[in-house]
Amino acid sequence: MITLQQRTIAHFDLDCFFVSVECQQDSRLKGQPLLIGGSSDRAVVAACSYEARRYGIHSAMPMKTALRLCPHAIVRSGDLENYSKKSREVTDIIAGKAPLYEKSSIDEFYLDLSGMDKFFGSLKWTAELRKAIMKASGLPISFGLATNKLVSKVATDEAKPNGQLEVLSGEEKSFLAPLAIEKIPMVGRETASQLRRRGVETVKTLSEVPISLLEAWMGKNGISLWKKANGIDESPVVPYYEQQSISTENTFPADTIDMVFLHAELVRMTEKIAFELRQQNKLTGCVTVKIRYSDFETVTRQMSIPYSCADHILLEKVKELFKKAYDRRLLVRLIGVRFSHLVQGNYQISLFDDSQEMIALYQAIDHIKNRFGWQYLMKGTNVLPPDSKDRHRPATDIMPYLKR
């Protein structure tokens, strides 16, 4: 039996993924300060090249600010459909070769290679997989190889751009020790600022702070930080198929052909599970709509889409699928919506579609839904008047008619 100490975990990360895809489409962009995002005054940077980063530009920065820092930067609006296609290409390559893998975002993967050393040699096998990905996709990719997910991810970051790095068993702490605390995943600006005010600047110093003191400073997050600083991470590689879908459906008390009601119900259901996606920090790459008629015939229609978790994008796809699926003029007994092919990473993807106002709007909407419940804030098209149409909707799901 393989113990946690004997694990071998590889972390793959497509380097500057969106930028790399753009450069693949137009070789003239290589080596240029390139910004991906909208061009309006209120747009934000979704991604930027290494050349642009030298000017202090980073993702989520207002595009206007980025262009002040680097006036000669090239701006591309981005092509999320193409990025999603390339992500799926790489996923297919990994799925065809890896014994166990987790797609943790549109451009990141964890592979559990535990036990493979007995047969192939994990480093050699992983290096060959990297070459296969680069040859097939034409994109640069880096990997880190270590005994757990945390150290392998940090190793990947240190191997970039377009490199590879192995951290041997027993060398985790010494590898992490000289690094700045910001190198630890999930240590953001606020956490780093709190630690630096207390004189903690490197991972080594953080690892030497008593765990009880870190807990006093930061609660449960302090315990997690101490473990990370000491190279401890027992989280498993989650098989990709285990996080494939999220769905909802409604069987009506009375069969109906009321299109106003059916469309309102589609809006309600889509908003409900889109909110769940954002709560789980996930994106969907496939949308399915299900209809069951009064004679119990069931029809489903689905389509692959550019990864998204935005209501306005998903609603458009759901309505399009419903229109295709509803091809019989019979009463409807049930409708359902499912999002599948899920990956992590909602925030960065939303930058492609959204201005600063749109991002702020979604954050405000989700804040209200978190506080009062998702059903207390919906699109106006989903608020049915208090008449006979309400008989179709379960009492627990009827939205208050904006009286609050």
TrEMBL record:
Positions contributing to Mg(2+) binding: D13, D107
Manner of cofactor binding, per the entry note: Binds 2 magnesium ions per subunit.
CDD domains: PolY_Pol_IV_kappa
Subcellular location: Cytoplasm
Protein name: DNA polymerase IV
EC identifiers of the protein: 2.7.7.7
UniProt source species: Chitinophaga nivalis
Enzymatic class: transferase
Family: Belongs to the DNA polymerase type-Y family.
Task performed by this protein: Poorly processive, error-prone DNA polymerase involved in untargeted mutagenesis. Copies undamaged DNA at stalled replication forks, which arise in vivo from mismatched or misaligned primer ends. These misaligned primers can be extended by PolIV. Exhibits no 3'-5' exonuclease (proofreading) activity. May be involved in translesional synthesis, in conjunction with the beta clamp from PolIII.
Domain named UmuC: residues: 9-188
Location, primary (coarse class): cytoplasm
Listed GO MF terms: DNA-directed DNA polymerase activity
Gene: dinB
HAMAP family linked: DNApol_IV
InterPro entries per the UniProt record, alphabetical: DNA/RNA_pol_sf, DNA_pol_Y-fam_lit_finger_sf, DNA_pol_Y-fam_little_finger, DNA_polymerase-Y, DNApol_IV, IMS_HHH_1, Rev_trsase/Diguanyl_cyclase, UmuC
Active-site residues per Swiss-Prot or TrEMBL entry: E108
Cofactor(s) needed: Mg(2+)
Keywords, sorted A to Z: Cytoplasm, DNA damage, DNA repair, DNA replication, DNA-binding, DNA-directed DNA polymerase, Magnesium, Metal-binding, Mutator protein, Nucleotidyltransferase, Transferase
UniProt keyword Lyase, yes or no: no
